Amino acid sequence: MNFVDVVFYLFATITLLAGVGVVVARNPVHAALFLVLAFCSGAGIWMLLEAEFLAIALILVYVGAVMVLFLFVVMMLDVNLVQLREGFWRWFPFGALLAGLMVFEMIWVLGSSQTSELSKAVAHAPDYSNTKELGRLLYTHYVYPFELAAVILLVAMVAAIALTLRRRAGVKSQNISKQVKVKKADRLRIVSMKSEPKNQ
Amino acid sequence: MEWLLPIQNLLGSAWLPIWTVVKIMLIVGPLMIGVAYLTLAERKVIGWMQSRIGPNRVGYFGLLQPLADGLKLLMKEIIIPSGSNKLLFVIAPIMVLMPALAAWAVIPFSAELVLTNVNAGLLYILAMTSLGVYGVIIAGWASNSKYAFLGCLRSAAQIVSYEIAMGFALVTVLMAAQSLNLGDIVRGQHGQYGMLNWYIIPLFPMFIVYLISGVAETNRAPFDVAEGESEIVAGFHVEYSGMGFALFFLGEYANMILIAFLTSIMFLGGWLSPVPFLPDSIVWMLAKVAFVLFLFLWFRATFPRYRYDQLMRLGWKVFIPVTLVWVVVVGAWMQTPYWLW
What we know:
The structure holds 2 protein chains of 2 kinds.
Chain A: H1 3-24, H2 28-48, H3 52-76, H4 81-84, H5 88-111, H6 113-116, H7 130-140, H8 143-164, H9 176-181, H10 184-187
Helix pairs in contact in A: 1-2, 2-3
Chain B: H1 5-11, H2 15-49, H3 65-75, H4 86-102, H5 121-142, H6 146-177, H7 182-187, H8 204-217, H9 229-232, H10 242-267, H11 282-302, H12 308-335
Helix pairs in contact in B: 2-3, 2-10, 2-11, 3-10, 4-5, 4-10, 5-6, 6-8, 6-12, 8-10, 8-12, 10-11
């Protein structure tokens, strides 16, 4: 076993343990943090496969942005654990069946002789830039699927904003450009008064 | 490095890890000293701006003040609040400092002086700086305190928002340099006109956006709503004492120095000399970093704290549209013969 194998098994073990942690953690915040750990070690495995762009993008997008917002929401939720675990045994057979099916599929796909060739990293020259190659492919060969995906994401974004935007009557908000434009004369009225003698 | 060869032969295969650790020490050591003296510089500079003297009791000119502060924090008792999540409470300061130090692995100090010269250096920096927010969130949540929690929510929203503007500002830089490698970005700013070849000239609006987002990203005044003494005591680290607090402090200042280095590398030509007849060297780099750090301190002494909604408005409604427009402008500009960089 060489060094790369040791690192791989280390990352793989951490990923699996963190995945188990996500499921069994009693506290939802702990579960979210375990998910962050799983993402980080997953990125480590991708880095071993010399997919540096994917690995860093995983950290940047999922760990750096998505999970932060996730944690943000989970921390503010008042989760009732008892209520959450009520139907556990009722749904357990169904869940176990799904999990078993997924394990079977994964073994089937990853264990076959055709895919075992794909799992090895292709060796590249030291000046090979993974990012540049990916960019070149995305913007030449796959430009239409890529643009389509971008448009779909944009539509989803607009839809999400439109769904949460509620126009209620009587909402008070500041109009900042109006505030900035205010002149002294709009707010302040100087009244000149004659001073009055004390003992009148 | 010929004089190291005998040691290299003596150690054999253990040489590489040992030499790497030595190199890491050579970065982290001066960085920690830099952080210590940045705190002193901050107090001195702000003192002078406010017609005060600043620390001048410990050592000549107050030069031993950072050591005294460090020693004081080291001696203090660490109090773990009851009802807090103990493990996360202890991990949080480490989670702040870790990415702040890890990002330094790809920073080039001069043409040859860099720990690892990776092609995706800029992406790596972005990934590492985006991890720093976890320490803040975990600290706020694990403290089991309302003030800390409010501070951590504010900080999380702020960092995530300004990261987008920062990322877009860097997209224009990598468009101009056509590389993610930090060394190549500096080399792309090399030319016969010295200063005029730096990216600050074509990307000036992005320089401003990046600098201000950098201030917001490090939770510095005037964007320090995450700490906001007058509103939420000290924000996310209100429950920390002793070394826990010191680690947050170290992380914040290490991040400040990192942003200053990145600003110099991306926009101010890194180690390149501003005038063509002087040689390029690390001295220029340090001078530019010192200037950017001075700006940080200047901002703190000058501007009142932003209100939270103003801060969000500035990030989302001003900076992000400006950066998006400038990405298109730079893209179109580069297609014309008038792109000289």
